[in-house]
Amino acid sequence: MAADDDRADSDSADQRGGEAASKPRLVGMVRSFGWFLLVLALSAAAHALLIAGDRNPHKLEPFDEIADRVEYQLGHAISRGEMQEFELGEFHTSVYRSDLDTTLRLEFRLSLIVKQQNAAAFDRMLSRSRHRLRDAALTAVARSATHDLLDPTLRELKAAVAEAANDVCGHPVVVTATFADYSFVDQM
Known about the structure:
The protein is α+β, with helices and mostly antiparallel strands. Helix content is about 60%, strand content about 20%. It contains 5 helices and 3 strands; from the N terminus they run ααββαααβ. It has a 3-stranded antiparallel β-sheet with strand order 1-2-3. The longest helix is centred in the first third of the chain and has 50 residues, at about 1-50. The radius of gyration is 36 Å and the shape is elongated.
């Protein structure tokens, strides 16, 4: 009977040893499967972002397309009488660009766009302070970054000129600025 007990103890020890040996193997398999799932999820995310990103229906429009639409709507607002355009005249100026080690010669016609309800007050102010508005516009152009002067949409330059004009006015009446016949030449 004692021999049977020893054999039973020996069998249970073998089973425990077998279980102990299979546990690390099972844990290793679960870890490997977890790593596999992680790699699979990352590759799917990379595919979605890099390859299928062009077909994303929630993709933002490029800013240039939005700017073109705003310019188009601004033109219609002026033609409908909601906005009024005030021309400041022609400008001819040279701006030294240290980052390019060159001087750019800029020529353009500048107009300021004002809401119709502010047009009469702005017209009176313009007759008194045209020279101050022109000087503020030239200062804004001179302080602009090179890439803003060379940007085909001139969106940052327009915003800077409008902000400078509003500083001269003392309150925000200028909606935006428009540039016509804008050209630049590298004077070397």
